[in-house]
Design goal:
Largest sheet: 5 strands, mixed
Protein name: VOC family protein
Structural class: alpha+beta
Shape: globular
Distance between the termini: 44 Å
InterPro entries: Glyas_Bleomycin-R_OHBP_Dase
Radius of gyration: 19 Å
Strand content: 15-25%
């Protein structure tokens, strides 16, 4: 048989909150009911998700998760980010809901991936379909630290361990460190700080970017990281008292 379709069914505290959030990302409702239990189906092009409501459900305790495979993680991320900016004035990088940035995943053969954590606490894990040639392994001291930290925070949800890895790398600079890798580490450490409700550290990391000397070629390579830094700065300015502020 061919053409089978699998659609994940994920828990949430409120299907109304789920619908409102996913509409921001470009989804539309395909099915909704209130009895015998509340549930909703959502679709964005070929991406289908369904959710069921549980009274008293705590998103922080959710184990809900699913994989999404796409040929271009960057394109899907940019579409989601544009929707967030239009609706909230920023990309959500902390609290629930939030979204990580596409990065090479050491625990996924180096393929690009990002995670969307929705209002139900579900982790929608977006990965790139396997390319024709394997992705290269991370190189350099900072690149390897970055790869290990991404596994901890973006995949496992352990932002504290990611912070420890990045802080150790930043505490021992070396003369031959790649300046672009340093920019990536500083930006990612700021993002992790936001997840940990530590805006002071996020501000410190972003301020350190101004002290990184880059060539013209380096600046081009670091463009995506600086774009992420802009999103982090916007999130910081809109939530001065807490990095865990809901949108």
């Amino acid at each position: 048989m061919t053409n089978e379709i699998t659609i994940p069914l994920l828990p949430c505290a409120s299907i109304d909150d789920i619908v409102a959030f996913y509409e921001v990302l470009g989804f539309h409702t395909t099915y909704q009911q209130r009895k015998p239990y509340p549930c909703v189906g959502l679709q964005r092009e070929d991406l289908n998700l369904q959710f069921f409501e549980i009274a008293g459900f705590d998103p922080a305790q959710s184990y809900g998760s699913c994989l999404v495979l796409t040929s271009d993680t960057g394109q899907l991320y940019r579409a989601f980010a544009a929707g967030m900016r239009a609706a909230y004035g920023k990309v959500l990088v902390s609290g629930t809901p939030r979204m990580t940035r596409p990065r090479a995943r050491k625990n996924a053969d180096g393929l690009s991936g990002f995670s969307l954590i929705d209002p139900g606490g579900n982790w929608i894990r977006v990965f790139q379909n396997a390319p024709a040639t394997p992705a290269s392994a991370p190189t350099g001291r900072l690149g390897k630290a970055m790869a290990n930290a991404v596994v901890q925070s973006d995949s496992r949800g352990d932002a504290r361990q990611a912070a420890r890895i990045l802080d150790s790398a930043l505490a021992h600079p070396e003369a031959d460190d790649d300046p672009v890798a340093l920019v990536e580490v500083l930006v990612y450490r700021a993002e992790v700080a936001m997840v940990l409700n530590d805006p002071a550290t996020a501000v410190e990391m972003l301020a350190r970017l101004d002290r990184v000397a880059l060539s013209v070629d380096d600046a081009t390579r670091a463009a995506a990281a600086y774009e992420a830094a802009t999103d982090l700065a916007a999130a910081l300015s809109s939530a001065p008292h807490s990095a865990d502020t809901a949108p």
